[in-house]
């Protein structure tokens, strides 16, 4: 069983490696940064408004994909901003401690991270254009990555020293709790949040699923009867081509109006039972592997679906779940140890949260 203690790497370097686009807004010019309000001072190092705004914009973009508009209330925004500033303070403390301890990021790791960022830009000069937009040099960006990786090295050291591999008894106890939770509806109680999330993860990953391709002809609720009729006729015409032997992937590339899946030959990956509109889901799960559906009418319009693969629902078994549950226990323990480590740093730090932040 593989236990992974290096679990903070992705979150710690996400600020340095976000791409395409290193931040949600261009980096302010040096003079603007110097004149911007100071939100916090950590052992003499300032966290100014432009840095905070960049991180806030990224957080907000993620939240818009995960939350409903009515959930993003002024109270939610206030609490999230306070949490973000605390995270920036914590990151600054860890960076200072890494520097104090002489922790150095390996050049091969920095180079690999930089290559990863560059590879996400198309065309090849997109990386340099983004640097220019943010008003930073490649060396400054590389230094940003290096600093983040130094923090990763520091925190991984803390985790390695303090976090123990969970015992079989601990894993079994968590398994039994998740198994019990799987038989219950999701709980909204905060104290049950972690267990609910685990149960949701396994419920999704153990559910029946199908891997599909589809061709979409758009006609949503705003479409006129004439537009819907035209989309239906076009779908029927393309279905006839498929019945006559046309290649599904090539046909999807040529005709699908879905801008995401169309260029990929209609490939939509796996659909999990229970996550789609029931009528569409029932139709899709009834299609044999390798077969193509008739024209299916949905809220999005008219779709033709090909099933590439089917996976039956699986039982929640200890042997299959053990490694994931063990790593979950490590993640929880590591989070707690890192939190304690940061709290200890705060006891000897001089931290000043400024009034300007409350006005933001």
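Q: What amino acid sequence fits the structure above?
A:
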């Amino acid at each position: 069983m593989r236990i992974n203690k290096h679990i903070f790497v992705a979150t710690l370097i996400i600020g340095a490696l976000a791409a395409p686009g290193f931040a949600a807004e261009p980096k302010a010019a040096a003079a603007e940064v110097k004149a911007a309000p100071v939100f916090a001072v950590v052992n003499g190092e300032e966290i100014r408004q432009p840095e905070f705004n960049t991180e806030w914009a990224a957080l907000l973009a993620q939240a818009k994909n995960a939350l409903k508009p009515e959930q993003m209330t002024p109270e939610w925004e206030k609490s999230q901003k306070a949490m973000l500033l605390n995270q920036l303070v914590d990151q600054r403390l860890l960076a200072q401690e890494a520097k104090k301890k002489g922790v150095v990021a390996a050049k091969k790791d920095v180079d690999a991270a930089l290559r990863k960022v560059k590879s996400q830009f198309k065309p090849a000069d997109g990386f340099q254009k983004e640097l220019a937009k943010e008003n930073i040099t490649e060396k400054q960006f590389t230094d940003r990555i290096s600093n983040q990786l130094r923090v990763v090295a520091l925190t991984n050291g803390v985790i390695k020293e303090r976090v123990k591999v969970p015992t079989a008894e601990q894993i079994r106890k968590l398994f039994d709790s998740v198994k019990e939770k799987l038989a219950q509806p999701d709980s909204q109680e905060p104290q049950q949040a972690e267990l609910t999330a685990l149960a949701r993860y396994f419920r999704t990953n153990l559910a029946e699923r199908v891997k599909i391709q589809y061709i979409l002809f758009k006609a949503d609720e705003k479409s006129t009867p004439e537009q819907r009729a035209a989309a239906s006729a076009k779908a029927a015409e393309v279905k006839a081509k498929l019945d006559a032997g046309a290649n599904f992937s090539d046909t999807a590339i040529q005709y699908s109006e879905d801008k995401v899946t169309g260029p990929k030959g209609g490939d939509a990956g796996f659909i999990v039972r229970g996550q789609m509109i029931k009528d569409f889901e029932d139709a899709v799960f009834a299609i044999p592997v390798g077969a193509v559906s008739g024209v299916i009418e949905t809220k999005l319009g008219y779709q033709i679906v090909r099933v590439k693969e089917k996976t039956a629902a699986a039982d929640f078994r200890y042997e299959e779940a053990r490694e994931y549950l063990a790593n979950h226990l490590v993640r929880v323990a590591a989070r707690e140890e890192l939190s304690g480590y940061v709290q200890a740093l705060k006891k000897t730090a001089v931290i000043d949260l400024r009034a300007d932040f409350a006005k933001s």
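Q: And what stands out in the fold?
A: The CA atoms of residues 14 and 148 lie 9 Å apart.
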